[in-house]
Structure formats: structure tokens, C-alpha cells
Amino acid sequence: MKKRTAILLCTAAVMIAAAGCQKKAEPAETTAKEAAQSTESQGTGEDAGETETVGNADFPKKPIQIICPVKAGGDTDYNTRVIAQYLSKYLGVNVIVTNVDGGATILGMQQVLDGEPDGYTMVINGLDAYIPKMMGTTDVCIDSFKTVGIPLFDNTTVLVANSASGYESIADVVEKTKAAPNTIEYAMKIGAANQIYGIAMNKEWGAEFKMMDVGNNSAKMTALLGQQTDTAVLAYALAKDYFATGEFQALCLLGAEKNELLPDVPMPSEYGLKDIDCSKWFWLGVHPDTPDEIVDILSDGLEKVTQDPEFIATMEANYLTVDYIAKEEAQEYANQFYEDTLVPYTEEFLASGTK
């Protein structure tokens, strides 16, 4: 992960300068629903009590909730439920997932900020956490929380088309958009990072995609299947069944580097186009007034999840990378990634009409 390495080196330099101035596993093919059912089945904590736990006698003493600030059915929802299942194994209590959709993820984040600073409510998010602040609608972002950690990375964002479209390559699609501007649609969700991905493709490739507000990932897949839209970005695992049947084609990987788990998906640079990094990571945080010792317990538990062989196998079966960055280092990583990948398109994003 070259991009992560570069960001971490930058983070380390900042931290040094500042100092000087003073895995029971889900099957590989599990669905989000199955993961949820498995998590719910642990509600009594009986299974968790039989496994190694972290923490002390005071925390945790009751179920922990993870707020997922998007609708059920997408990759964030699925990954959250698997993380919750394994986290319950190491914290010794049930960890449940609650979907709170709305406000471009702000409703769910605000629910944590309005709650008690006791560590019993966490929130999961990624780059979408920064979008409302970019839009000027709120000051809430990752810096509004204490960061627990980042356990999971997804370098599988692909630009997808229905195979019936007949596109030969990403270069073919780009040329077609130039020949007939604003006729080839790019399905996205207003106020989400994938809206900025469309802006980036138009700017960096000289493309002329027509931006269409379709909705979440499930809505995008439905539109692609029905040929109601031309292209969309999706995590590869979400649409892997359609890739297997040949109904969908992955035009290119939108990442900083080639993914060895997806050797047949080309990078834009293989066709003379600039590579655009739309990879993802999954961040967890808590109320900013949560005691540090509680954050430490949650972070230690999350790190144990990332060391669980069964968790690793489950995630790798979905082409994801398991790695752990803890607390302040994870927060610095998230902020730097945002600066590198979204901030350069702020002007175009705001001019596009985002409210």
C-alpha cells in the first residue's frame, strides 16, 4: 500500500515536529444480512465470554453500539457488521450495529456527539465524513471525535458498466463521452465521495460524463442492471456475482496502485489516463470526551480483530486489506488522505450544485 506508506511517513514527521516544540468467523461468501444475524445471535454474550477479551472489570459491562451512518445493504454496512461480530469476541459483550441514514452521514455522526461519552456508542465512516464540511453545511468531521482506529482498507473501487453497453475499455468510454458530451451517465449520490470521483474523472481525463443522482450502492446496481444508467463506481465485492456472470464489466480500478487480488482489472494508466485514487478505509470513533483509558480498550480490541486469522480470511475473500492504524495516527492518516484526494476538487464540487 504505497499511498498509505507515504501518508504515514508524513504523519510521523508531523508528530516528531510537534514533540520538538514542547478473527468466530463469517464464511467468505457471507451476506450483510447473515453477518447481522450472526451478530444478533451473540446477544447473550455467551460465545464472547469463552474467548480472550481485552479491558478491565469496569468496561465494557453492557452491549456496545456501532452507528453505521448509511442504509443497510452496502459495503460499509456489511463491513461494519463483520467488524462488530469479531469485536464482540474480544470485548466480551455484544456489539450491535444501528443504521442511521441521512444528512450525508451527519445524522449518525451527530447521534454519537449527542450521546454519552462513555464508549458504548461508536460511529464508523470514511471519506464521506468530510463531505458535509466541504459543502459548508456543518463543522462535524472526523476531527470532532476521538479516533479508535482504522482496521480495514478497500483498494477495490472500480468503474463499472453493464456488459451489454459494448464498451471496449475505459479509454473507449472516455472517447465516447468526448464525442457526445453529457450523454453517457455516471450514477452517483449527491453529497457522497462518489460525486467527487465523477468530478475527478471529468477533470483528470477530459471526460464529459453526465452526473446523475441515483442514490446509494444498491440503487446504483439496480440502475446498472436495468441499463437505466451507463456507469457507476462500486466496491468490487458488492458486484462480484455480476462480474462472475459477465453481466457487469469492471472498466478500471480507481486506486493509487494495482490490486494483486484483482489482476484482470486494469488501471487507467494502462490506457494513458491518470490514475485516480478512490480507495476507501473504514474509521471508527467515539464521543470526544470519552476517557482515554476506554478508547485504549476499544482500540486494543479492534487491533485484536485485525489479527484474527478468520477475520482476515473473510475480508480477503472480499478483496479487502486488513491492517491496523490506532488512535491519533489513524486520525492523521484520514486527514492527510482527505487533503490528497478530495480537497483538490473542492472548487468544482461546490460549483456543481451539491445542496
Low-confidence sequence ranges:
8-51
Rough outline: globular
User: Within the largest sheet, what's the order of strands?
Assistant: 2-1-3-10-4-11
What average pLDDT do the residues reach?
86
How many helices does DSSP assign? 13
Largest sheet: 6 strands, mixed
Radius of gyration: 20 Å
- The helix content is 25-40%
Provide the structure class: alpha/beta
Beta percentage is 15-25%
Order of helices and strands: HHEHEHEHEEHEHEHEHEEHHEHH
Distance between the termini: 34 Å
Q: How many beta strands in the DSSP annotation?
A: 11
Give the arrangement of secondary structure elements.
Layout: H1 2-20, H2 32-40, E1 64-68, H3 75-91, E2 95-99, H4 106-113, E3 121-125, H5 131-135, E4 146-154, E5 157-162, H6 170-179, E6 185-188, H7 193-205, E7 210-213, H8 217-225, E8 231-235, H9 240-245, E9 248-253, E10 280-286, H10 292-306, H11 309-317, E11 321-326, H12 327-341, H13 346-351
Parallel strand pairs: 1-2, 1-3, 6-7, 6-8
Antiparallel strand pairs: 3-10, 4-10, 4-11, 5-8, 5-9
Helix pairs in contact: 1-12, 2-3, 3-10
InterPro entries: BUG, Bug_dom1
Family: Belongs to the UPF0065 (bug) family.
Signal peptide: 1-19
